[in-house]
């Protein structure tokens, strides 16, 4: 807390600044995988497709890396840097196999290409090194520093380890989160296209193109018998000796069955510039040294061969994949009827197999079966895509992503596919040219950020909504409805991360613009108003917060109707915001019947119904109706455990309130037992000095010392 505030954790699991015995909360819309908080399942294996048959040339760098995993070595960071397609990941993968196989190191592989992937991967590393579910949940919820948790467990690992941070092409992602550190227990290897100046203190290793002889051997490894060593060397020269281009060329040569090509014939086709020059296909001009140009020379020949064999769908699928990011893309996205705009759905399997055979894409398993292509290849394909095909490709890509994001995000189990979708949502916003595709992509990205928010991954939710708004604003403008909605979601995530001052500025600004453009009763403006009152409640501005909450209740009642879940949710917030003496008179005395109204309209297990029951139990407790409060709190706590699992913060908050109702009824022993469990879990998950832990420990001490007293009812 800052600014001299003395807020403390109350019974709903947040830090609050308020006067009197207040109970302030945003209803928790999130859930947990009760089998454990997991990131990518591939943390113990490289998240790459097929490694090279033989790693050519890299003898010197491999020897340098090998010495770092000898017995007793640790505390080193190696950065493999160079242009795209030069084989940095291949070197890291080969070293990974060596370290885990010959040297007995625990191998940990994390995709560091974007914040969401890095965060999920590093939390999976923490889980692998012994972090408990509660600790991981706290890190994801922003209740404890995630990087500190990860490196705490890496430093205390019983086994020596190797950690690979692959595709760290934006080093500020590592720097901003303090993710890159050293430890005597292990070695870190980073692969990146970033300049060497970004990596002070690390041992740098440039990975360049292959020497002529080794480049020729790559072609002969992949396509033995297709020509002489000198012919292979000439083709390698033509392809700039770039490992990625060589791999694509070798894959093509090795899969020509009916009419096999020789290296000599392949060279003749490379020289026919009118067939392969990207600029002749309406693309941006590329220099001869640009890796996209070198890769383009190879894949275009492959696509021409697909056309000749009656497989035009393979080219269409590759162009569709190029609208997405060069990160794992769940295969389920491609198995959807909307793909029929670009290629027949019945031919998708055949097209994918053709791309896999030619090394134009790979299958990877990151806990979800995915397809992944190299970024340089996708850039090259995107650059060469005819302009008239782009609108249909963009529209289809957005529809496929739309189908993968929950239509109405709600509390539920942690879904690793959500994190996988983030880079693709942002890539579509970067690629989309037509305004309709761009606005739809922004709507999908914002809904994805809401889904992330409601699984408690607030940092990913904030980054997704903030970046989406920044990208879309360039073309749609700052005052576009969807841009403002994305900014509002970013403000809500900042609140959850405890960045109250930033959240207040953001939400005040967005709400003012929304009300000016759309009116005070506009649903988007009311959403921002609801978020703002939460922030103000935590900053101690109770009167303004309550006034805004009443504005939201009345506005949603008019705009959405009395039975809408958002209207009921806002009314439920009144149960916890109002003093006990006002709860009984609010809405003519009907507010206290809200839980039964929610159960009738939404069902007993609906998220809003559960939240209303929790808030209602608090109000009953303040009113001195301890038996009713105790029974309701018991039922709510049991429902939370079924829904979220025993470690989730809201479960502990519910148990804390349950301990109060038990103690108020004279069952102090049960109250102490409940609070002891809460304190143990919070000390383990959040640390002994976290405000939530401190507040829980204080309540437990009051029970044990006999100083605790229940609140005085208003009529007492």
UniProtKB/TrEMBL annotation:
InterPro entries: NLR-like, P-loop_NTPase, TPR-like_helical_dom_sf. One of its GO terms (molecular function) is ADP binding. Residues 29-49 are annotated as: Disordered. PANTHER family: AAA+ ATPASE DOMAIN-CONTAINING PROTEIN-RELATED, ATP/GTP-BINDING PROTEIN-RELATED. Pfam families: TPR_10 (PF13374), TPR_12 (PF13424). This is ATP/GTP-binding protein. Gene3D superfamilies: P-loop containing nucleotide triphosphate hydrolases, Tetratricopeptide repeat domain.
């Amino acid at each position: 807390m800052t600014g001299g505030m003395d807020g403390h954790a109350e019974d709903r699991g947040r830090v609050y600044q308020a006067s009197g015995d207040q109970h302030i909360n945003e209803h928790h819309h999130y859930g947990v995988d009760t089998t454990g908080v997991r990131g990518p399942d591939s943390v113990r294996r490289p998240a790459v497709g097929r490694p090279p048959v033989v790693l050519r040339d890299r003898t010197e760098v491999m020897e340098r890396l090998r010495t770092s995993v000898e017995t007793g070595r640790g505390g080193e960071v190696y950065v493999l840097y160079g242009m795209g397609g030069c084989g940095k990941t291949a070197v890291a993968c080969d070293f990974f196999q060596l370290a885990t196989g010959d040297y007995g190191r625990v191998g940990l592989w994390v995709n560091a290409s974007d914040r969401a992937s890095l965060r999920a991967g590093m939390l999976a590393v923490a889980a692998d090194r012994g972090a408990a579910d509660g600790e991981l949940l706290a890190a994801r919820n922003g209740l404890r520093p995630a990087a500190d948790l990860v490196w705490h467990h890496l430093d205390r690992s019983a086994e020596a380890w190797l950690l690979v941070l692959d595709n760290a092409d934006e080093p500020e992602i590592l720097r901003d989160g303090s993710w890159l550190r050293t430890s005597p227990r292990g070695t870190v290897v980073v692969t990146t296209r970033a300049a060497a100046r970004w990596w002070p203190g690390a041992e740098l290793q440039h990975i360049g193109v292959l020497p002529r002889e080794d480049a020729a051997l790559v072609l002969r490894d992949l396509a033995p018998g297709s020509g002489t060593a000198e012919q292979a060397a000439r083709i390698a020269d033509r392809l700039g000796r770039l490992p990625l281009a060589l791999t694509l060329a070798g894959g093509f040569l090795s899969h020509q069955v009916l009419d096999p090509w020789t290296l000599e014939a392949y060279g003749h086709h490379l020289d026919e510039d009118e067939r392969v020059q990207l600029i002749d296909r309406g693309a941006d001009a590329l220099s001869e040294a640009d890796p996209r140009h070198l890769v383009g020379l190879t894949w275009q020949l492959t696509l021409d061969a697909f056309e000749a064999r009656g497989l035009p769908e393979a080219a269409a699928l590759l162009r569709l994949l190029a609208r997405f990011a060069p990160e794992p893309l769940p295969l389920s996205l491609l198995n959807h009827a909307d793909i029929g705009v670009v290629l027949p759905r019945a031919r998708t399997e055949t097209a994918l197999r053709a791309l896999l055979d030619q090394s134009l894409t790979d299958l990877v398993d990151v806990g979800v079966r995915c397809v992944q292509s190299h970024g340089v290849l996708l850039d090259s394909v995107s650059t060469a895509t005819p302009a008239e095909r782009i609108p249909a490709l963009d529209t289809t890509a957005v529809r496929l992503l739309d189908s993968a994001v929950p239509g109405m995000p709600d509390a539920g189990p942690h879904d690793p596919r959500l994190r996988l979708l983030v880079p693709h949502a942002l890539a579509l916003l970067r690629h989309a040219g037509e305004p309709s595709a761009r606005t739809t992509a922004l709507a999908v990205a914002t809904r994805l950020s809401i889904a992330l928010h409601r699984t408690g991954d607030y940092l990913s939710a904030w980054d997704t909504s903030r970046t989406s708004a920044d990208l879309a604003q360039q073309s749609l403008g700052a005052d576009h409805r969807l841009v403002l909605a994305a900014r509002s979601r970013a403000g809500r995530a900042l609140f959850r991360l405890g960045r109250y001052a930033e959240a207040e500025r953001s939400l005040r600004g967005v709400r003012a613009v929304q009300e000016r453009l759309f009116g005070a009763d506009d649903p988007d403006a009311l959403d921002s108003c609801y978020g703002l009152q939460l922030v103000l409640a935590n900053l101690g501005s109770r009167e303004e917060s309550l006034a805004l909450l009443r504005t939201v209740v009345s506005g949603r009642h008019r705009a959405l109707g009395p039975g809408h879940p958002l209207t009921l949710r806002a009314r439920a917030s009144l149960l916890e915001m109002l003093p006990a003496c006002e709860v009984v008179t609010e809405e003519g005395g009907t507010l206290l019947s809200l839980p039964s109204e929610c159960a009738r309209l939404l069902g007993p297990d609906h998220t809003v119904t559960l939240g209303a029951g929790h808030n209602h139990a608090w109000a009953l407790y303040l009113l001195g109706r301890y038996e009713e409060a105790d029974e309701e709190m018991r039922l709510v706590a049991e429902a939370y455990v079924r829904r979220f699992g025993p470690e989730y913060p809201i479960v502990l908050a519910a148990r804390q309130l349950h301990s109060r109702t038990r103690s108020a009824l004279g069952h102090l022993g049960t109250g102490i037992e409940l609070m002891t469990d809460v304190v143990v879990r919070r000390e383990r998950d959040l640390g002994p000095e976290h405000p939530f832990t401190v507040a829980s420990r204080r309540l437990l001490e009051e029970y044990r010392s006999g100083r605790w007293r229940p609140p005085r009812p208003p009529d007492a």
